[in-house]
User: What shape does this take?
Amino acid sequence: MSRKKYTLEFKSEAVKLVTEQNYTQIEAANSLGIPLCNLRRWVQEAKTRGITKEKKLTAEQLELVNLRKQVKRLEMERDILKKAAAFFANESL
Assistant: This one.
């Protein structure tokens, strides 16, 4: 008998039924056709990791998000400058 693997997305949606949509754990497990013990474990793990709806980022996570945004903006600016340089190089010929 093999164990069934659930995707992270499926687990997350199952937890949201309990934490955000006010299903009981039994109702959610029955409607999804999964063992209650699995759902209980996923909900507990979500609470300990802070994945529930009151998601809080640490200072490092927040800095990482901001740095990624800055990298995207800088890459876009670089691409614009490359195109402008190519345009003006062709124009002067």
Remarks:
- The first helix runs from residue 8 to 19.
- The two ends are 73 Å apart (CA to CA).
- The chain has a mean pLDDT of 87.
- The CA atoms of residues 37 and 58 lie 30 Å apart.
